[in-house]
Amino acid sequence: MILDCNYLALNNPDDIMPYRTEKSGLLEFENPEVYYGYPSSKYPLVNIPYQLYDYDQNSLPPGFYQVVLAPNRKMLHLVESNKIKASIPVAHLVEEAVNEEEEREKLKKKEKLEKKYRKRPRKRPMDTSYLEEQADMEASIIDTKDNYYILKYKNGRIQATGYILK
Known about the structure:
extended
């Protein structure tokens, strides 16, 4: 009787191998991807060099945090590892109106590029609109030497300011 080693290795690898074999990589249910996390490229980062405290003397250590404006635009969240570490009420909010002419021009330009490179998609230049969005966002914290810090947030057409008591 002739044994086919490939047959045995595929059906029961422990019969041939002197050690246990495992499938490499992650299984589908072990995927560590965060589905509901904030995309890192859409929110500005702030470096907070101060130890911040709340009324209950809970502290926020110095470090880098994403600054995220809540959907209702009443709170600024300091986010670390897709977890909200602190929430600061918005004291001042400025939202610029959308210029319809600029939006139409952008759409026309995009449609023109799509039409031009429809037959040759590999020749199409790379889309760098996400880089423009990243260049138009910033966050900073200012120590006022009074009783509070000022947290400033800017992302596109939205600017918000929050105050943190010392």
